[in-house]
Amino acid sequence: MTGNAIRGVVGAILLGGLAPVLAGDPQAGDKPGGGDPVTLVDSTGKELKLTGVKLTVGVRRLAWLADTKGTTDDAKRGPLAVEVRELNSTTYQKGVATLVPAASVEAVRYEYANQLMTVAVKGLAEPVTGTLHFRGINVFGLEGDAGGVVAKFSGGAAKDGFKSVAFPGAKPLPTRPPGGTAWTVQIDQPKAGNPLLTVRNIKALYQFPGGIEQLVDALPVRKGDPLLLNPALKKLEVLAVDLNTQIAAFEVATEGGMDRLVAVPLTLEQDRRIGTLAGLVGEVDCGWKLFPLHTIKVVKPEEKK
Fold first, then answer.
1. What is the residue-level pLDDT of the chain in tens, covering all 305 positions?
2. Does residue 143 belong to any structural domain of this protein?
3. Which of 250, 262, 215, 257 is nearest to 234 (CA)?
């Protein structure tokens, strides 16, 4: 298959859209706690009541859920999500990120002595846990009106970071269609025993200029048909990621076929824009997990019991 044909196939997948697979509500609201007063405990243990709160640090747009026909700026750009770096996701600073819809966050708490951050999510029994071992990672910032004075607050810095912030008006997580394919992702982290994480409906995430993101069902390869991310893919092992040549090398096993090596470009041309492969995205109960390629060892469909 020629390069133009590959771009055409992947382009058709892009234009087809993936909203039914990774559903969400872009208009669920980006105001933390639904706009209700927020309770913050500062570094001295003092409790503050904040109104008009805006999230400033530690969040990102889920631009793949953006609705160009939305009636608000937030809907058009995609909902906000709190980004939490996983505890055991390689020794590199940029690791696996859990993306939790900001409107569903009940609280963010810091345990500075243990170098931990926890994010409580509306409707889930267990919080999402992150590490403070990397400078500038899992820092959470906001600004709000504290008794008539607008101030900025930041958590994650051991010296003067706040201890906790609670959002009493958090909303339940958006519902998703049932079913889908479960995948096991083995993380490249020998010190932690190369842990396994389970996600659903895995897709490739491309990021384009202007804050545009697209999820796709397939990865283009330099020679051959696009690599479909479906149950017929029995193994995807990341062998190397070369940022100089913008090529990744995978070992792939498909249903009824032999293992083979494939070269995957890290860029994709779509509508005269060049997008970059940010990694693989999969659904989890609290939102999504984003796996940059350098964090992945092996991806496989979960074995049915």
1. 333 333 343 443 333 333 323 333 333 345 665 668 999 999 999 999 999 999 999 999 999 999 988 888 778 899 999 999 988 777 777 899 999 999 999 999 999 999 999 999 999 999 999 999 888 899 999 999 998 999 999 999 867 899 999 999 999 998 888 788 999 999 998 888 899 999 999 999 999 999 999 999 999 999 888 999 999 999 999 999 999 999 999 999 998 877 899 999 999 998 889 999 999 999 999 999 999 999 999 999 987 66
2. yes
3. 257
Q: How far apart are CA 254 and CA 230, in angstroms?
A: 10
Residues 184 and 278 in one domain: yes
Q: Output DSSP code: residue 61.
A: E
For residues 264 and 100, give the distance between their C-alpha atoms in angstroms, rounded to a whole number: 29
| Same domain flag for 108 and 54 | yes
Q: Residue 171 domain-assigned?
A: no
Q: Which domain holds residue 218?
A: 3-23+176-301
